[in-house]
Each structure stands twice: as C-alpha cells, then as structure tokens.
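Interim report, section 4.2 (structural modelling).
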Amino acid sequence: MDQVTFGAFFAAGVGALLSNLGAEWVKTIVRRGQTQELIRDAELQKIQSEIEQIRILSERFWGSNAATLGDERSLMISKLVAALHTISETYASLLSGPSKHDCDMSFMKAHEAITGGDFDAPDRAANYQRLTKIFVSLTNLDRTATNGRRALKRQWLA
Amino acid sequence: MTSEIVIARDFTPFPGGRYRQHGEGSGEEFRDDLLRPALNREASVTVRLDGTSGYPSSFLEEAFGGLIRVGFTAEDLRKRLKIEAEPAYRSYRQLAWQFIDDAQAIASRTAAAS
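Predicted structure of the assembly:
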C-alpha cells in the first residue's frame, strides 16, 4: 500500500514538474519570438524615421540654392549621406533575398535623386523638379521596406 | 598582378563629393590618385567599399563613371575591375557599375555623333 502511495506521489510530482517545465519552455519560445518581432518592427520604424528626416532635409537643401544655405550646406550634406547610409545598413540587417534586392533598387533611385549630379557643387541652383523625384523615390523606398517587413516569416508562437 | 584598394583604409572612411575643389576625399581624388594608377599598373584591381560612412552618388559617379571619361572602357573594366561590398554596401556597388555603364553609353553616343 505504501509503495503504491509513494509511486502515485512520485508520478504526480514528475508530472507536475514536466508540466511546469513544458509551460516555461513554451513561454520562452513565445517571448523569444515576440522580441524578434519587436526588433523587426523597431528596425522598420528606424528606416521610416530616417526617410522622414531625409524628406525634411531635402526640402530645405534642394529648395534653396547652395549660396543661400551658406555654412549649413556642408552640415546638411553630411546629414543626408549619413541618414541614407543608416537606411542601407538597417534594411540590410532586416531583409534578405528578393525583399533586400527590391529595397536595394528603391534605395539606389532615392540615393541618386538625393546625392547625385551637382549635390555638392557650391554654385548649384535650387531644383524643385528634383525635389519631386526625391519625394516619389522616398515614398517608394518606404513602401518597399514596409512590404519587405510584412513578407518576413513570423516567428513561431510570436 | 592584382591590387586591392580598401577605400576606408587606403583612402578615407568619410568619402566626400565629386571634385577635388569641393573638399577632401572626393571621387576625383580617389580616381586619379588611387584607382587609375592601380588600373594602369596592375592586371586587375579589387576595390572594397565596406567600412565607410556611406557614399554620395556624386562621389561614386566621378570615381567609377569618371574612369570612362579618362579613357577606360566598360568592357575593359568588367574584365579587370572587381568591386566588392558586404550587404549594407551592395547598393553602392550596383550604383558604381550603373555609373560606368551610363558613362560608357554617353561616350559611345558622342563618338558616333562626331
């Protein structure tokens, strides 16, 4: 009788332990998946925030001639190049395969629209047509990055 | 012989604008002081784009597209020039080749017209 009682208690104890371990294991997987999804969302937000910064900077940069911008011109050039590079680094860590390729294509168009041609010429004029090209290419880049993020396979149980 | 140029190490980690007169680290300076002499000296040249703080398109156009304007052909460059980049720099590599092809197209049109 005692042996039976001990056996029952032991089995119940092992069962409870396994059930707790199982629950913790599932929680860990869920937490890991959720963290991964949050990181991905944060990376997309980083890209979108840099795109917005570039939009604001470009409006001032290409909406004025180089002489009007004066000393601020060099600072704006540095900010634009750095913001573009941050976007490139961020989507390279977020995306891969066809989504990364699509982002590369959109990035190249935006990059050339913003920093190509007479970008750093000290005597360049304001260029509103170019601003249109910049805004369109930035919207495309935003859309491509968002689509790439959506296409990422969701983490299991996240 | 093959030569390797790592822009961040051998030139500058902070590439600048198009022309030398626009400041240090320009595309013109890179092309004339490093890339062109290496291409004239070596059978093949590898340029690594990684490690810099990014590139303005104007730098890339002058450094790589400018090679066509100083006498190289896209066909020759495809054989002898290798541009390498890790994922975050691959779009710069594609831009560099696009500028080489665009400059070649312009040079060919000009030659045909004259």
